[in-house]
Design brief:
217 residues; Rossmann fold; 11 helices; 40% helix; 15% strand; binds adenosine-5'-triphosphate; ATP binding
Length: 217
């Protein structure tokens, strides 16, 4: 594969983004440059299959992502999960992304290691790597799973960054980036208790949250 094909990898960062915060954004840019990928799409889920419904609408979560990424041309917001009814299964999104980009382009699903550890609870999880690679961001306190089916599955597919960009799918790459201990749960708690979330989210997101009175009850 040529250098230009390798640099053309598409990274897709899935999550609830309730709300998107600087931990997501800084990790995304560091990962994009580490791989490297030519673009990264944030893909908010509509109805997360593995957790409580978010309370804030998917459209509002997507609107906050749009505000957060304005001015960064390598980032975009992919709303395909908002257009589908029912639970947002990642495998369905990967299927549709593949139809859009074809079979040859490297497609890299990005997640935090906390999400990676629960991968074996995802719908049709063993098919994911037929469609994409996985790049996982090590978060503070994270440990590689030691035993079980998931541990063996991940270990047998462990790859270095250049291997992810050199082929379309099939590898797992775990990388430690600048650790930023920010979580959306903490932001929601701060706001619910009347405290400020300023400087944990981009200013435009902070303003949106206040204008729409989000997370106050
Ligand atoms: P919550 O606290 O509601 O679980 P979250 O902050 O973990 O939310 P999600 O929307 O669930 O955010 O996360 C989307 C993805 O981003 C997940 O794979 C998660 O592991 C990852 N992620 C979240 N926060 C960080 C962070 N500070 N650094 C790196 N990755 C993160």
């Amino acid at each position: 594969m040529s250098e230009s094909q390798a640099a053309n990898a598409l990274a897709v960062f899935g999550g609830t983004f309730n709300p998107v915060h600087l931990g997501h954004l800084r990790s995304a840019i560091e990962l994009l440059e580490h791989l490297p990928a030519s673009e990264l799409r944030f893909m908010p889920c509509s109805l997360p299959p593995h957790r409580e419904p978010p309370g804030i609408s998917a459209r509002q979560r997507a609107a906050m992502i749009e505000l957060a990424i304005a001015g960064e041309p390598r980032f975009s917001c992919d709303t395909r999960e908002l257009e589908r009814a029912g639970p947002s299964y990642t495998i369905d999104s990967l299927d549709s992304l593949r139809q859009e980009i074809g079979g040859q382009r490297s497609l890299i699903l990005v997640m935090g290691c906390d999400a990676l550890l629960g991968l074996d609870r995802w719908h049709r999880w063993q098919e994911l790597l037929e469609h994409c690679h996985i790049a996982a961001i090590a978060r503070p306190g994270w440990e590689w799973p030691r035993d079980g089916e998931l541990a063996a599955y991940l270990e047998s597919r462990e790859s270095k960054a250049p291997e992810l960009t050199a082929r379309p799918a099939g590898g797992v790459h775990i990388t430690s980036l600048r650790p930023l201990e920010i979580s959306a749960t903490e932001i929601r708690r701060l706001l619910q208790s009347g405290r400020s979330a300023r400087y944990l989210v981009p200013d435009a997101v902070h303003t949106y949250i206040h204008q729409h009175r989000l997370y106050t009850q």
